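haha ok so turns out i had the wrong file open the whole time. this is the CORRECT one, sorry everyone. sequence first:
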Amino acid sequence: MWEKDAPPERPSWLRTCPLPAKSRGGEVVAYPMVDDELALLWLLDYGCVDLHVWTSRCDRPDRPDYVLFDLDPKGGGRFGDAVAAARVLRDALELLGLASLPRTTGGAGLHVHVPIARRHTHEETRRFARVVTEAVRRTNPQLFERVAVDVKMNGYGQQIVSAYSVRPLPGAPVATPLAWDELREGLDPRAFTMAAVVGRVERLGDLAEPLLRGRQRLDRALASLAR
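then structure:
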């Protein structure tokens, strides 16, 4: 079951973020705010398994923290194709002067995030993602015939799987932030189990943390792509 609203029986201390939902004709949804350990534990006790989040925060819902590229092998294809496509995307972003972060989704695909300053709109991030995607498709047509790149989740009210969320799949894989040098042929996303990811965080820290302090701007990149 997919549930957005904080339930009526929620504890009084659980904060919510009331925002209108386009999918409900503007009806306000009371999104639960999971910003501390106690709130997370309550969600788990309530029965939540995989957690999905906006790309923006409650205080500025119209200003996302990052651009998202969602890569999935087509037709049950190879995860290695998604890895190759993510690398191509990373190189293209670097040419535009932008750093990015990869993440497994816990499923068959990958996410590539571009941390940005909280001044761009969702429309701007989607337009940027669309233009970059078209550019890499033109330069690598055979690869991107095998990998779908979804950019529509760059939008107000869209929700994506959270970093470190367990997925309801065999083995309970976790959506795991990675370093780019880990993203190589032969990587198995199913290896990122709960126990493995706890160990990773103890060794490496939170590799997703830069998403919350982005300073990159899209203006210059958009201008260069328009030429």
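The first strand starts at residue 16 and ends at 21.
again sry for the mixup
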